[in-house]
Model the fold of this input.
Amino acid sequence: MPAALWIAHVKVTDAEAYAKYAAGATKAIADHEGVFIARNGSYEQLEGNDRARNVVARFPSLQKAHECYYSDAYQAALKFAEGAAERDLVIVEEIE
Done:
């Protein structure tokens, strides 16, 4: 079963509220066997919308990534991001 990547591009508009989201999301991701492989590092915007916060987490499977997003813990954290950021989030299955 291939691993999956959770890729987020974010423009934070309320740092205090978003920090609360990040704390809860970090725990939810870890609880679903997710590990961060990129988080707020240097980046180069080549195309599309520039959003300075770029996060990539790897999960053991697409199903685990999906379960994380819809978990009670992540959904509770997500409430802090609402109105605090412009976000794009996608789950992508890795090539085996």
Observations:
- The chain has one domain: 4-93.
- The chain has a mean pLDDT of 96.
